[in-house]
Amino acid sequence: MADEIIKEGILSFTTKKTSFNIIVLKTVNSTNFYTKELAKNNAPHETLVIADHQTEGRGRLGREFFSPEGSGIYMSILLKPDKIVLPPSLLTVGAGVAVCRVLNSISKSPATIKWVNDIFLHKKKVCGILAESTSNPDKGTISNIIVGIGLNVNTPDNVFPGKLNKIAGSVFPENITRNEITAKIINEFQQIYNADNPQDLIDEYKNYSCVLGKKIHFTKSGKAFSGTAVDINDEGNLIVALDTGETLILKSGEISLGSENFTD
Ligand code: BTN
């Protein structure tokens, strides 16, 4: 199946009333970088930048996001906080839920989310989300939010370099192009950030979570902690019952699971 990313191809699957301004690039350093530059030049709300290949794809915590050509979806969505209904702090959660809905509609295996934003399918990470914002220096308010989504669609396992080889995987969907998958993600995400029901969103996110009830480990301010992930609060923070008996609210960072099994 021809699988070139094309603006008209994406638009043919988006909901009819979509107002997305879509920019398709063959190669870019990072769609998040590119979109931030566009934002500085007053690009409108709902600008979507999507690339076939990134030379400097970025993940959270300064990591690289491996982005080979021809096989993934690397996209950034520019949103203006005053034009969305969902609290901006829940956009990462919203994007994760949007991707899980789409993966569950095109894949036989269930998609799960490892807090906060890693999406797993058949025990491999297939998607990462990096939300960034720019502020208005005069007012000290957030002026733009850039939600970056990287999804490995058809990247063969043996292409992932080094340690990634054990962790990363692809969706390998049947009979669906990257254009249609992209449109489906946009459709779901748009519906999520235009809706006024954050509690339903958190509940759905919790249903996809592969960490709740599990033993986890993490470091915070250089100190190692162990405990059980017991809940996700209204702000998308992880509530951890520490082995010491205390409760800790984790707002950011990275956790590792006590076991390697991400799906059950
Ligand atoms: C992570 O796994 O830590 C987040 C990865 C986010 C990757 C996407 S790909 C599109 C956008 N551009 C980037 O440079 N990063 C995000």
Concise account of the structure shown:
23% of the residues lie in helices and 32% in strands.
| Total domain units | 2
The CATH class label of the largest domain is Alpha Beta
The CATH homologous superfamily of the largest domain is called: Bira Bifunctional Protein, Domain 2
Order of helices and strands: HEHEEHEEEEHHHEEEEE
The global form is: globular
Count of helical regions: 6
CATH topology of the largest domain: BirA Bifunctional Protein, domain 2
Low-confidence stretches: 260-264
The assembly state of the depicted protein chains is single chain
Bound molecules: biotin
Radius of gyration: 18 Å
Largest sheet: 7 strands, mixed
Number of strands: 12
